Amino acid sequence: MPLILFNKPFQVMCQFSAHPSRPTLADYIDIPDIYPAGRLDADSEGLLLLTDDGQLQHNISHPALKQPKTYLAQVEGIADPAQLARLRGGIDLGDFITLPCQARLVEAPDWLWPRDPPIRARHDKPTSWLALTLTEGKNRQVRRMTAAVGLPTLRLVRVAIGQVSLQSHPLWPGEAMEIDPGELSGLKK
């Protein structure tokens, strides 16, 4: 049972089937019968776990199992305490209300790779970085949350799933490595 850690590059589709205009996981990973445990949209980068074990895949990605996922979001503007409190408390996004999460202002990560292409630079608009840890993961949720509090996301990188992180397993975008499934202790029931 392989458990693959993959650093998904910006604009790569989180699927193995061909896409008409963008690269997919098949352009980077050539291991038969593995599937992503969860998804990242094309505009998001970072940690993706893949496995051939259906139960493990379910345990990693299913929101009811509350596996925390941590994201770094570069946002337009500087988050104030009220905006951070709104993010932490749950936000009504119209079609659902987000669960409470962890949200804090952090320094720009010095270990993070440059994005290709770089984010747009606007000299009249400062940017800041937020660390957000969620136990759910609906479509474009982090982007919708930050926009709802007046901090549009410019760059979004998933850096951890549970205790497995890109800081403890440094990979450049497009790189993959097999890890011991025991690193995900407590996931498999």
Model description:
The chain has 189 residues and is an alpha+beta fold. It has 2 domains: 1-67 and 162-189, Alpha-Beta Plaits (2-Layer Sandwich); 68-161, Alpha-L RNA-binding motif (Alpha-Beta Plaits). It contains 3 helices and 9 strands; from the N terminus they run βββαβαββαβββ. Strands 1, 2, 3, 4, 5, 6, 7, 8 and 9 form a 9-stranded mixed β-sheet that branches. Strand 7 and strand 8 form a beta hairpin. The chain is globular, with a radius of gyration of 16 Å. The two termini are 16 Å apart. The model has no long low-confidence stretch (mean pLDDT 90).
Q: What brief labels describe this structure?
A:
189 residues; alpha+beta; Alpha-Beta Plaits; 2 domains; nine-stranded mixed sheet; 3 helices
Instruction: Report the sheet with the most strands, covering strand number, pairing sense and barrel closure.
Output: 9 strands, mixed
Question: What is the CATH architecture annotation of the largest domain?
Answer: 2-Layer Sandwich
CATH class descriptor name of the largest domain: Alpha Beta
Beta-strand percentage range: 25-35%
Rounded mean pLDDT score: 90
Q: Which stretches are low in confidence, meaning pLDDT under 50 for 5 or more residues running?
A: none
Report, as a whole number of angstroms, the end-to-end distance.
16 Å
Structural class, judged by helices and strands? alpha+beta
**How many domains, in number, for the residues?**
2
Number of E strands: 9
The helix-strand sequence is EEEHEHEEHEEE
Might you state the CATH topology name of the largest domain?
Answer: Alpha-Beta Plaits
Can you say what the CATH homologous superfamily of the largest domain is?
Pseudouridine synthase I, catalytic domain, N-terminal subdomain
- Measured as a percent range, the helix fraction is 10-25%
